[in-house]
């Protein structure tokens, strides 16, 4: 079975609000073997919502609407779905009584407008809401087609779905297992990666392959569907090793773990520690490292040396070296890494210095030029990088490249 999710509410079309309910519902539906094939956000517009429901039902067996079940005039989900199905709304006195009783328990009198929540679409089953006043609705929209109307507040939606919807879905959804495999890759452009692996994954419709790209980080999602979990895993076991063989050590994670987590695991395995010295990244590298729970086992700290004076005072880098090569140079990146390693006693020192923009740099070293230094027991070195994009993108790519440089060294 396929499913579509429609989030209802004009507030979700503003920059201030984000639909998170669909993420939860997708996870729960996938666990049942249901594929979510489309999501939509529709404002509080009755006609648009009616048309969206009709279109979704024509394409998919399961349609879930979230939100728009409140008591006010802009809560139009009940009316729009009733129109889409060509069914009337039916008053349910027992629902009105339950809503009124909830208000009494809170020491409040129910407003007259709350009675709107006691109307069900003809043929619907009420889904009890123990966290709010709006009951959900389960509707058989036709042979093999099902509609769910769920309240918008996440705590209410999750409670209604877990208590009322899961068991109903288990009765109507044919057994199907969905299993996934996620590879995360660093150090390759998306186009190069796809050119390398597409001749392999294009031979398979099941598993399906999706490639997601972020600055310096690519995710490859493999999704297999089968009648049993064992069959789905077997499908993944056929495709995944072929992709792994092509990508080699560019793969840093096989379970969706971010790069900072992968680096941390390698440091723990070695019993090694790390310190950082940052200039253009302004603490972003240390923030990523310490975002991992348990990072205190291997991260000893860092120094934020944003100008030349701090590089001299905190790291002891000579004014002559800075004047002779400038702060954005290979010798200074090497010195930063070596000095932070020496001063903290860490096994490894990692440094970043560069021009993040929008100002700075010159013809030889334009904005986006970054040097990353690595000081290890075996010696110290630094590499130049040239990143394109705005200030935030350059800084993000710098931290990603620094972590990947250390990862490759640790994985030797």
Short description:
With 412 residues, this protein is an alpha/beta fold. It has 13 helices and 17 strands.
Describe this structure in words.
By secondary structure, the protein is α/β, with parallel strands linked by helices. The chain folds into three domains: 2-172, MoaB/Mog-like domain (Molybdenum Cofactor Biosythetic Enzyme, Chain A); 177-253, 2-Layer Sandwich (Alpha-Beta Plaits), CATH 3.30.70.2860; 259-410, Maf protein. The chain contains 13 helices and 17 strands. The strands form four sheets. The protein has a six-stranded mixed β-sheet with strand order 2-1-3-8-7-6, sandwiched between helices. The protein has a five-stranded mixed β-sheet with strand order 14-13-15-16-17, sandwiched between helices. Helix 2 crosses helix 3 (77-85), helix 6 (190-201) crosses helix 7 and helix 8 packs parallel to helix 13. The model has no long low-confidence stretch (mean pLDDT 96).
